[in-house]
Structure formats: C-alpha cells, structure tokens
Amino acid sequence: MTRLTDFLSTRRLSAIVSVLASLAIVVGVSQAATLSPRALQEAVMRHVEGVAADKGLVAHGETLSVETLPVARRAIDFPSVASADTLAITCESSLMQYFAPRTLIRARIQAPDGQVVEVGVPVKISLSKTVWVAKNRVMAGQRLAAQDFKAERRALTDSFDLAVGAEIPLETLASRLVLQPGQILQIGQIVNPPAVRQNEPVRVVVRGLPVKVALKGTAMSDGRIGDRVRVRQSLNRALFYTGVVKGDNLVEVNL
Length: 255
Known about the structure:
Shape: elongated
Distance between the termini: 129 Å
Radius of gyration: 35 Å
Mean pLDDT: 85
Largest sheet: 5 strands, antiparallel
Number of helices: 2
C-alpha cells in the first residue's frame, strides 16, 4: 500500500511539474519582443521623409504626407528577444532614383541574436507645395513675367520634383511650350531665354585686330550664352561675322 501511495504521489508530482513547465513556456512567449504595426509605420515614414529631404523636396516649406497601406494583420514577434527597443529597422526603396507617389518600401527588422524578418510596406505619398500656376496664355519662346502667373498652394500627387516652386524667379526664364491658364509650370516647360534674338540689334566686339573694335549688328538667329551665331554688320549689310554669344545682345568675334 505504501509503495502504491508513493507511486501515485510521484505521478502527481510529475504532472504538477509538467503543468508548471507549460506555464513557464507560456509566460516566456508572452514576454517575447513584439514589433507593433505602429513602430513599423513610423520607421517607413522616417525613411520617406529622409529621402524627400535629401532630394530637396521639402526645402521651401513643402508639406509631405505619407500613408502606409496595411501589411500584416498581427504584430511581428521575436520570441528570443526581451525588448522591442533592441530591434533594428532599416528601410530601402527606389525613391532616391524616382520619387513616385506610390511605391514599396522594403523594411528589414533585425534582432540582436541575428534573427531577421523582412516586410514590404506599400506607401502612398502626396506633397503640398507652393507652385507657379499660369493665369494667362503664354506662348512658346515667350519670356515669363510675374503678371502671367500666380503662386498657389497645391497638393501634388505625382511629378513632385518637376513642378516649379514659387521660390524660383520667373523673370530669368522663358517658356518652351504654349502654357494654358490653370496649368502648373513644370521644369520641362521652361528654358533659359536666348541672350540674342533673331533680327534684333546686337553689339559686336571684334578681336584679333591691332585694336578691339565694337560694331553694331543684327543677329541672324536666336542664341544663348555660349552659342555660335551669325551677325550682319549694320554699316555694311553685305558683311557677316560668326561669333560667340557672351551676354545679352553681345556677340564676340575672333578674326
């Protein structure tokens, strides 16, 4: 009878130990480090904001809005890690090459013990920026003037780095294309205006003679600084020179 009692006591003790061990495992799991969706979202937002700053997209009072789309239905667990503060999150994307309104951010979460989890996070980006908007119709080749444009705050959903911000002075530019009222001015639509224009008077400086000679002439074509253009002398209309545009209405000829 004593042996039976001892056997039963041993069985009860073993069962109790097993239960306690199971409880210990459960407690251990509950104390594992957990990366919440919020923490992942904040890391992704920091990445997008950092790239925008590096590209100069928020250097003039622009406001960036980043929406992260749902990725996981539950938090990401690291059973072997005690605190989520020890988790390192690094993000990569193609935003530096092209700052697209929709893209996928690749997040890499690494624990101190080397465990790594990688997650793709889709994001939607918009940028609020003060840009130049045409008030009047502007012809191709026309110099831009302040009276033809207005500065407006616009929410841009694409072409963030193409819209011309209101911090850029218009007077130094000309239009490459016809612009319609309400159209946002973009980088591809503007050029530096010609320094000399076809059939307009220019000052011709002739070098290579014993003395420097300055003459009046007429440009035979448009030209920007550094371009070679033909000019016709005003005193002798049968005499033409080919020179280099050096400034507004100034052409230098080397004989």
